[in-house]
Amino acid sequence: EVQLVESGGGLVQPGGSLRLSCAASGFTFNNYAMSWVRQAPGKGLEWVSSTSGSGSSTYYADSVKGRFTISRDNSKNTLYLQMNSLRAEDTAVYYCAKDGVGATIGLGLIDYWGQGTLVTVSS
Amino acid sequence: HSVLTQPPSVSGAPGQRVTISCTGSSSNIGAGYDVHWYQQLPGTAPKLLIYYNTHRPSGVPDRFSGSKSGTSASLAITGLQAEDEADYYCQSYDSSLSGSGVFGTGTKVTVL
Looking at residue A22, what DSSP letter applies? Predict the structure, then answer.
């Protein structure tokens, strides 16, 4: 059974940093690209960042480019999102998501989602 | 703002059929990129509902069906049930944007 368990969310002040983690199990982790998708309170889904199975390729939404860094440790089956220079508009539930096809960053199909972790940016 | 537009809400009585549209453009759905649909029940994470335009993952009832034509796609729910009350999102790829996917604006389905 595929499981994705996020952690690391919490309350942080504007300009602060936070690192999210996603522990994956139930599949061969390095065979799949992984993504972070966020959802602001009462709003829709927004794709944030993706990384290939090896971690050598990464993509970012324009809204987080230069501030967020996605990475993965395939030896630990764990995905990360380092978030710096946080803003109020980054407040959201952040979901870890597994690509539905394979190791290459593809066209967006997600077949499994984590339960999400809430990040609140406020003074 | 999203490049895939959905109606904010649709509603229907139990047993009725409702459809949700997902309108894109020539750089996404119209370019031939596939459309996927996700269901988000209240307070939970999204779940894959339809993939590659028309396919249902194992366990998804056949009351749910997807279609795609031109620059749009649709999700239909027949025999609407109370447990179908949720938010629904379409997703595709847009060649004018960086990244691996773009989501629709989302549609709230209410069972009357």
Answer: E
